[in-house]
């Protein structure tokens, strides 16, 4: 493949990436929400998009199956980001990774007393590091979605999840009590591809940087 393959996930990242792609002269020829295709051709002969799960983007780029990708900081923290060059914070899909508990639960007191907390999350690695650094004892329970449900049915005392407006927490009688990280989506680049295809990749990086008002 002499062209460039870019890995993206459907939904908010795809939507918020479209203007950045446009700045590099890239318009997808199909809409991933209506098409079932996983490889999308673009207005540029030398650029194609692949549609993958948000949490799989770093893997495709790490192995060079995609040259570039766009992934949330949450996904990159959990993946570890090994072998990935992360040149640009695109400042899209912004939210915060938070610890949340039921409204009536005194988290600070539980932590002070050295209680052992059961925490349900999709972000097991990131949560483990966070609580270890704070000296909070936790048993982590891996979930793949709908974390807000876990404390409501007695699966866990707390959750670690992404929060933007806080409306989902509120609707489920939960409150955010601690921030773990500020989240936004980053451009990730395969390190070998950057060396071998720099003449194609560098102008794209410059166009993306220009589109978000940053000097490359
Ligand atoms: P999948 O459904 O394939 O497991 P996902 O649920 O993580 O993936 P999205 O909900 O589209 O997929 O999230 C993709 C990325 O968007 C996340 O990795 C995160 O960086 C960001 N994101 C998630 N939730 C929010 C939110 N409420 N506000 C802003 N950005 C968010
Ligand atoms: Mg989701």
CATH class label of the largest domain: Alpha Beta
The share of residues in helices is 25-40%
* Radius of gyration computed on alpha carbons: 19 Å
Mean pLDDT across every amino acid position: 97
- Which stretches of 5+ consecutive residues score pLDDT under 50? none
Count of β-strands: 11
What is the percentage of strand-forming residues? Answer: 25-35%
Along the chain, the helix and strand elements come as EHEEHEHEEHEHEHEHEEHH
Biggest beta-sheet profile:
6 strands, mixed
Count of separate DSSP helical elements: 9
CATH topology of the largest domain: D-Maltodextrin-Binding Protein, domain 2
The number of domains is 2
Provide the CATH architecture of the largest domain. Answer: 3-Layer(aba) Sandwich
Structural category: alpha/beta
Strand order of the largest sheet: 2-3-1-4-11-5
Oligomer: single chain
CATH homologous superfamily assignment of the largest domain: Periplasmic binding protein-like II
